[in-house]
C-alpha cells in the first residue's frame, strides 16, 4: 500500500474512533449545508483531525470546525497536516448529468481532495518544499462516476504552516468555505478570483519590473539624475519580492524562502529612501551608512531569533521599515514644498496613497481589518509606482527640454563668439596686412621722392631742351601724385576740389578753351582717401586731355555734386563729339577704358555720353 492511501485510511480511522465527540461533530457537519443559490452549496462546517508527525500519526480527537478555518486563530502554533471531512448531497434543481465542481477560494499552503474515499485532486507537493497555493483559488472537478445523489463524503487534506514560522499572516495555514455546484457556474467565480489574485498581480509587477529596467537605463545614461536609478532598482526589487504571490514551487523549504523574502525588504526600503532623498536633492552619508548596516542587521536578527519567532520579529522589522518610509516621505515633502512647489501636490497624493496602502497592510497583518479578497497592496502599489514613474519621466523630460534649450542657447552663444573671434582675427589680419602694406608704400614713396624725384628735378633745371624739361616736369608731377597715393594720408575733399579746379582751369586756358567750374558753396567736411584722390585726379586729367586733343571744343563745363555718401563730377564740352564710326568702341582704347577701370576700382562708375549738338559728357560718381 502506498503512503497516500495509508495516510487517508489512517485519518479516516481517526475520524471514526473519535467516540461521542466525533459523533456530535459529524452530526453537526451532516446538517443541511447553506445554499448560496438554487444550484450552489456552501459548506461552512466540517470535522477535522490533525497530523502530528509522520503520515500515519494523527491525534485521537476530531474537532468540529467552522469554515473558513484560519490557523492563525484556531491553531496558531500548529505546523503540519489537517484533515477536514464533511458530507453533502448533490445540489437539487440542476441537471443530473451536469458536470459538478468543488470551488475553494483559499487553501494555504497546499491540499489534496478525496471524494467518497477516492483521491480526485492534488495541488502539488505536500512535503517540504511544500507547494504554495495561498493566493491561488482551486477549482476541482467532481467525477460523475464517484458523485452520489445522497450522502457524499468529502475529505480535504491541508498542509499548512504555523503563524510564528511565516513572515506574513496571509501565508499561515487555513482554508476557506467550500462551494459545490455546476462547473460552468463556479468557473466564472474562479476566473474572476484568479484574475485579481494572480493574473493582475503578475501583470502589474511585470509592467513595474520592465519600467524599472527602463528607469535603470535612463539613470545609467544620466548619472546626475541618480533618483532614476534608485527608483528603477526599487521597482525591480519590488517585482522580485512580489514573486512570492504567484511562484508556487519554491526551490527551498518554507523557512528558507520566508527568510529570504523577509530579508529582501531591507534593500527595498533602502532604495525607496534613497530615491526620495535623491529626488529632493538631499544626501546624507549617515543615512546611507545606516541603510547599508540595516541590510546586515535585519537577517542577523532573524537568524538569531530562529524560525519559531519569524512572524513576531518580521512584524517588528516591518514597523521599523514603515517608519523609515514615512519619515523619508515627510522629509521629501517638506523640501519639495520649499523648493519645488509645482511638484508638491502630485507627489503628495501618490506618496499618501503608498502610506495608506501600507497602513491597510499592517491592519490586515494584525487582524484589525477583515482579509480582502483582492491583494490590494500587490495590485494598487504597482499602479501608484507606475504613476510615480510617469511623473519622474515627465520631470526628466522637462529637465531634458530645459537642458536642450540651454544647450541650443549655449551653441548660439558659442557660434556668435566664434564668429566674433573670426571677425576680429580677420580684422587683425587685415590690419596687419595694411600695416605691412602701409610701411612698404611709405618706403617706396620715400625711394621715389628721394631718388627719382631728385633726378627728375635735376633734369628740369639743367636740361637745355625745352621739350625734355617739360616732360621731366610732367613726370615729376605724376611721381608726386603717385607718392601722395602711396603715403595713404586722406585729405579734405574741399582741398582736393581746389587742386582739381586749379589744374583743370590752367590746362584748358593754355589750350584756349573757356573753363566753367562750379562746385558746392557750403562748407565741405568730408575726407577723401589718398587713393581716391589719385585715381580721381588721373580720370579728370584724362578727360581734360581728350577735350584738348580730340574735341575741338571752345567751352568746357565742370560741375561738382556732393552728398553724404558720394560725390560726382560732370565734365561736358561743346566739341564735335565722338564720331559714329567709333561708337561702341570707346572701351578699346587705353584712355576711356582706363577711366572706367579706375572708377570701378573705387566702387564707382564712369559713364561717357556723346551726341551731335552737345559734344561729349563724362559723368564720374564715387562713394565717400
Ends: how far apart? 124 Å
Alpha carbon gyration radius: 55 Å
Give the beta-strand count. 21
The low-confidence runs, each spanning 5 or more residues with pLDDT under 50, are 16-36, 53-57, 584-590
Explain briefly what this protein structure is:
Helix content is 56%, strand content 17%.
Folded structure, characterized:
- This protein has 624 residues and is α+β, with helices and mostly antiparallel strands.
- It folds into three domains: 3-193, Jelly Rolls; 202-409; 490-623, Heat Shock Protein 90, CATH 3.30.565.10.
- Helices cover 56% and strands 17% of the residues.
- The protein contains 16 helices and 21 strands.
- It has helices at residues 3-16, 19-29, 71-74, 183-221, 226-241, 243-246, 254-263, 265-279, 285-305, 310-339, 344-365, 376-462, 466-487, 493-510, 530-551, 590-601; strands at residues 34-35, 41-43, 45-51, 63-66, 69-70, 80-88, 100-104, 107-108, 110-115, 118-122, 138-142, 152-160, 174-175, 178-182, 491-492, 514-518, 527-528, 555-562, 566-573, 605-611, 615-623.
- The protein has a six-stranded antiparallel sheet with strand order 4-3-6-12-9-10, with helices on one face. Strands 1-2-14-7-11 form a five-stranded antiparallel sheet. A five-stranded mixed sheet has the order 16-18-19-21-20.
- A hairpin with a 2-residue loop joins strand 9 (110-115) and strand 10.
- Helix 4 packs parallel to helix 12 and helix 12 runs antiparallel to helix 13 (466-487).
- The chain starts with a helix and ends with a strand.
